[in-house]
Amino acid sequence: MYGCHDVITVRVLKTMEWMQRGRQFTVPLLIFFLLAAGSYMLYAALQKKELDYVRKLVRDELHKTDFLLNLKKNNALSALARMAHRWEMAGGTSFPLWRTDVRNYRQQFSSLETVEWVDSTYHIRWAEPSRGNEKVIGLNALFDAQRAQALKGAAEKDTPTLTPPLNLVQGYTAFIAYIPLKVGDHFDGFLAGIFSIKSFFDENFVKNISDNYVFSVSYKGQKYFSNGVTSTSQSESYVSEKNFWIYDKKWILRLVPTPQFIESQESVLPITVLISGLLISALSALSASYILISRLKSKDLLKVNQFNSAILSSTAYLIVATDEKGKVVIFNKAAEDALGYGAHEVIGKTTPALWHDETEILVRAESLSTELKEKIEPGFDVFIRKPLQKGIEAREWTFIRKDHSCFPVNLTVTPLRDQDGKSTGYLGVIEDITERKKTEKALRISEEIFRTAMAYAPIGQALVSLEGRWLKVNSALCRLLGFSEEELLANDFQSITHPGDLEQDQAALQQLLTGEADTYQLEKRYYHKSGRLIWTLLSVSLVRRTDGMPDYLIAQIQDISERKEIENMKNEFISIVSHELRTPLTSIRGSLGLILGALSQNLPGNIKGLIAIAHDNCERLILLINDILDIDKIASGHMRFDMKEEVLATVTLQAVEATEAYAHKFNVSIALEPIEKDIKVQLDAARYIQALSNLLSNAAKFSPPGETVEVAAKLNANRVRILVKDNGPGIPEEFQARIFGKFSQADGSTTRAKGGTGLGLHITKQIVEHMAGRIDFDTQTGKGTTFWIEFPIVSGSEAATADKSTIEAIAFHHQELPTQPPNVLHVEDDADLSHVLRATLQDKATLITAGTLKQATEFLRQQKFAMIILDIKMPDGSGLDLLECLDSLTEEPPPCGHPRRRCAACSDVRPGRCGNC
Length: 917
Fold this sequence. Notes:
By secondary structure, the protein is an alpha+beta fold. Helix content is 45%, strand content 23%. Strands 1, 2, 3, 4, 5 and 6 form a six-stranded antiparallel beta sheet that branches. A five-stranded antiparallel beta sheet has the order 12-11-15-14-13, with helices on both faces. A five-stranded antiparallel beta sheet has the order 17-16-20-19-18, with helices on both faces. Residues 1-14, 16-25, 747-753, 796-817 and 893-917 have low confidence and may be disordered.
């Protein structure tokens, strides 16, 4: 009717010319009648056109919204389908990779609130994001009737399933898309995508619907979304509705123009035509106005087309749509760039077979024919048969560009349907997966290298879960432990670990899990399948997931049984040698000392000098053996530490006094600065004196004659530092890094001239650290060295000092000693040593020797002894056993009235080491 007025005008003018020839009076009436009738007809036609135009605008707007929603739905559901396809192709997936995919897709689709994995028992096992979804983990997906009804038979149908709208525990209304998963023929649960209904429909393209329309979405008569604009009953005559399918669920999209929009589309043209129908100028003006309206309508239509084109051009995915016969109708910019074809070359002219590999199409046709048990011809039917059945299909293909180069893609095909559900075409969303394929290939190569390296490693290697179960073991480990691979994988490391090593292993593992350490290494014992113990060196590192959480452990297990056996042999050798050497050396030292002391006046000068040399070298040998024994005790953990609260000033003074005689041999004095009496530390006094004496003797040895070694204590917060400063040559820089090592000596001639075993500082460091202390030094070449040891200060009650009453009692006891020499029992199987001791105690005590424990017991029952000197290693047992029964053998208390003190002197106990004397 756009040209109706012009046509009528022309016809009226021609009629007027015909009538003017003979009917002059009837012409005006005829003109009036014709114009009036024409005006009325034009008035009625314009009103109908306006009504149709408004309805067309509503339908166009609804079609645009439907198209965009379909595009969004297809993208979102195809994302889930791709995830499900990867799951099935890979035979399952790991949680980190699955969560990474979910995060990527949730960033793309804001309406995708949550993605869950529902296992084959219909229990929810994974949910991303985890925050806010803690309550759903472990929940049965069939816990309410609606979900149970929706999932009924879903696993058997092997098709995606959609729930009706649900009110979720997370506090919003949503629908859930369940895509069944299969690994081979095994049902592996569902991939569930939870879409918020509000977020799904309340996107930018819905917001772009102007306030001229009321937009709502309903399901089975219940409204679930509205853009909040209101309408009136008058507007309902313009309503437009459209079916919106999500899988097999039909939603209703409803669009109603507002009264304001309807009024804006109404014009005064019809009434003007009716009133001014006789005026040709008014009719001409009406025609011009009508043409203008037509142009405006064309402009609106152009805007809609531009908007759709912008959406298709902006996406990174290749978008290709076809009609129901396969002819391309949409070919977006991304498709042009990727395939090299222009849209004008393919739209309406060809099918997607142009860029598909013919071989792949043939193979797919055969596969579908086998699967569906019907003949599928290679062609367009290959792409649409499964989507028509399932609603959507995602599959990997190879695309061939115009220049004949190839690249892999993931193609998701979705049927396009009208409001009656009839297929009108097909939408293909294509993702270029070239980079992903490269990453997967690199990962496979890396995993293969790791598997090969592990399988052929010469030492035991294993992957272990955080709970301790063996996940993967190599053949070397199976040979080492005597178990088969299946036996180990069905077990955990705790069950074959020696109980004595388990606590240390688990403590180190806990430090690894908490991030306190990156790796740990320890020696531990495993039970061989035969029951014997195997010593191993265990090295463990932790593998973390992409989010930083611990994933699994890598363990390397090396057999060190032979080394342990050698160490045991060495320890036994040291023990035997120490006993066999120290006993005769003690006799030699005592004899030489006795000669140099009591008998030295009767010796010629040259003989006396030779005996002095022998005595000094004997002392050196004893010191060396003592140091070696200390090293062995520290390494084996057998060195005892009797930790007590001690007054620092007291034990430091004792160490200085014990070393003064040694310092005098080098013409060096020791100066002790006053130390506060209330400073107390927790330590073993004897071990502290041994450690500090080592530092003092070193300082004296390396100080020039006439110099002074300074000893001081400095407080620092809750710790105290004891400093030993000398004025010697300093420590060479190249020697500083290994000064605390075993047998460490500087190579300078001055240092070598001083002699020594090179063990003293190493022993000192071990003793200090075993008492929770620290040791280090500061040195300057040519200016001297300051060694320092540091301990925490003990807070609380005062440390136990020397018992005054005990001292007084001992003094009293000494005053009451009888004039007759006391009896001393020497329990010793070495007659030479006993002979030396008897000569030493001549005129001071009467020494009675017992060569066995049995003989010693008889002596103790027969008479009283003021002192017992006891060797631990006796031919018929341990001297410690005699100590245990000493009270029963000597029932009478000592004359002082205080508890009897015991003293054992043996080959591995030096002066000051007995805890009771």
